[in-house]
Amino acid sequence: MKKKIGLALCGGAARGSAHLGVIQALEDFNLKPDYISGTSIGAVVAALYAFNVPISEIRKFAESLKWFKFTRFSLSRTGFMSNADVGRIIESIIGSKNIEDAKIKLAIVASDIATGETVILKKGKVSDAIMASTCIPGVFSPVILDGRMLVDGLITENIPVSPLKPMGADYIIAVSFNPKSKFRKPEGYIDVLLNAFEIAAWQRTEYFLQEADAVVELNLEEFSRTDFRKKVDALFNEGYRQTVLQINSIKSSLNE
Fold first, then answer.
1. Among residues 85, 143, 213, 230, which is most buried (max CB within 10 A)?
2. Which of 40, 82, 111, 176 is flagged as catalytic?
3. Residue 253: which residues within 8 A CB-CB, separation 6 or more?
């Protein structure tokens, strides 16, 4: 009986184009995932792919993005920007869809900033879930869903492995951008925050990775996390290359 594949896509802001190379490599070797989960930019890629948006179209989308296209100034007690534009952009591509309508079973991970809990979103509006999962605390105002204050899933589960087995996956492939002890020197306020969150979250990340059957680990230290248009092709190629290097191992373990 063929094993069902689950794919977990991590956060990493503008580095998310590397996920597209990973997915393309899996498709090229007939390893298309049956289930997919995403955190932050990984949630954006996972959602678009789960609704059958072609990889070539997602690449064009990535090349057109600007950081402030994702944001809008909106001073409040809990953040000085709104990321409502994220939701509008997602809806402009796939429409006003619910997560449960995805062509590939989909889970989006966010964090409850009031309780510290991981929140796994498998129902409800895709655009709302993406807004929550990409909501960098301290920058964006939390997204209120079902009475919970939700922010970026990076804080509690940056590599969203945990939803996949309960969804039905037999074999989990996780994509990690984290170079463990190596972090790029911050270039601005957002990089300072993201470094802080990733450093704090790494021990939890290692714990979740133990539940993965294969890990595609990408050292993307040289790539910017805030310039979405920079080096999209290079990120895609690195994701593709590293995945191809593990294809034989993945196929062998799938057949065990």
1. 143
2. 40
3. 171, 213, 214
Are 19 and 170 in contact by the 8 Å Cβ rule? The answer is no
Q: Find, among 135, 156, 154, 122, the residue nearest to 35 by Cα.
A: 122
**What pLDDT is recorded for position 187?**
67
Q: Mean per-residue pLDDT for 182-187? A: 64
Residue 67's pLDDT is what? 43
- Angle between helix axes 84-94 and 41-50 (nearest 10 degrees) is 20
Tokens representing 135 are 């909501």
> What residue type is assigned to position 2 of the chain?
K
pTM: predicted TM-score of the whole model, two decimal places: 0.88
Q: Is 152 a catalytic residue?
A: yes
CA distance 211 to 208: 6
Burial 141-151 (b: 16+ CB within 10 A, else e): bbbebeebbbb
> What is the reported pLDDT for 71?
44
With vertex at residue 24, the alpha carbon angle to CA 89 and CA 164, rounded to the nearest 5 degrees, is 75
Catalytic residue among 34, 112, 128, 152: 152
- Is 96 known to be catalytic? no
Sorting pLDDT into bands at 50, 70 and 90, what band is 152?
Answer: very high
**From the CB of residue 253, how many other CB atoms can be counted at a distance below 10 Å?**
13
Q: What is the pLDDT of residue 75?
A: 41
Is a pLDDT exceeding 50 seen at residue 77? Answer: no
> For tokens 């911050």, what's the residue?
186
Q: Quick one: how far is CA 45 from the chain centroid?
A: 6
